[in-house]
Amino acid sequence: MASVAVRVPQELSARVPVEQREPGRDRDGVRLLVSRGTEVSHHAFGELPGLLRAGDLLVINTSPTLAAAVDGRIGHTRVVVHFSTRGDDGRWAVELREPDGRGTTRARAGGGGRGAPAPAPAAAGGPAGTKVRLPGGGRLVLEEPLSARGERLWWARVSRAEVPGLLREYGRPIRYSYTERDQPLSVYQTVFALPSGDGTGSAEMPSAARPFTARLVAELVSRGVQFAPVTLHTGVASAESHEPPYPERFAVPEASARLINAARAGGGRVVAVGTTAVRAVESAAGADGVVRARAGWTDLVVTPERGVRVVEGLLTGLHEPEASHLLMLEAVAGRAAIDRGYEAAVRGRYLWHEFGDVHLLLP
User: Fold this and answer.
1) What tens digit of pLDDT does each residue of 176-217 get?
2) Phi, psi of 140 (to 5 degrees)
3) How many CB atoms lie under 10 A from the CB of residue 140?
4) Cis peptide bond N-terminal to 127, omega within 30
5) Residue 20: pLDDT above 70?
């Protein structure tokens, strides 16, 4: 498991978006930490066009964020269903959590009932056959764990309701305890989000792209920076145990594969906007480093041992010191760069999580 040797004070969690913290600012009003190897510099996010150069290419994730949290009941017990991923057979991968009394959720004390000691979060899913009543008359039945790794996520069958419609009518964005209050879904959509025809999307926002505005995108294009859209529908993160990501649905279109290969051939740098974009592009790259159009499911976990074949830079949020995402950052930039960058972020009072500041890793 990756970790960095810093402690992140609780007050460095971004509790609301920057445009609510500082009225008059837009989304691009966050700070930008830049790491070039172990050399660190401090910027405003609006300075990004000056930090890239003509011929560079940004890989962006167009997956829309879903209102993926829905209240339900198991008997008389309240639960919150986090809808993670739609399977090819029409089932959905879900995580059942319990309300924490503060508007967010915590891992369920699986099977023990009220007052029973809570087991590890990985055991909190089932058992198979568990039935959840959903709003509007829908029903959900847990069928089997998504993975042999644990029982946090389960494949579930939903009846008497279409899940996309259920989420539109009764869902709200997933949020965690460090945030201050519920936010409208628009706060969790990036400027690159495109609605999907089948109603699928990301359970959690591809948040590295959140600071982009239409104005900033136009300035980048005017300076010769290119964009290659890909899609990766992100599943529910592991808030407690920081496990590696589960398989996720992705697509790298032919036009984007050509753009990425041409940028590399022309000496441009391929910079992924977010760990989701890294996972998608690296899943479509052959051992020869050539990206080819691909769509389907990826179970790729990018680690320093596996390395990266295509991505040379990464724009990403600041992750918790135990997060499995740090292995991917280390694969892109090296352990020394990540350690140095995170030390600088804590010293500089950068803000963490999806509404926080961002980190640009360049060669």
Assistant:
1) 888 999 999 999 999 999 998 888 999 999 999 999 999 999
2) -130, 135
3) 28
4) yes
5) yes
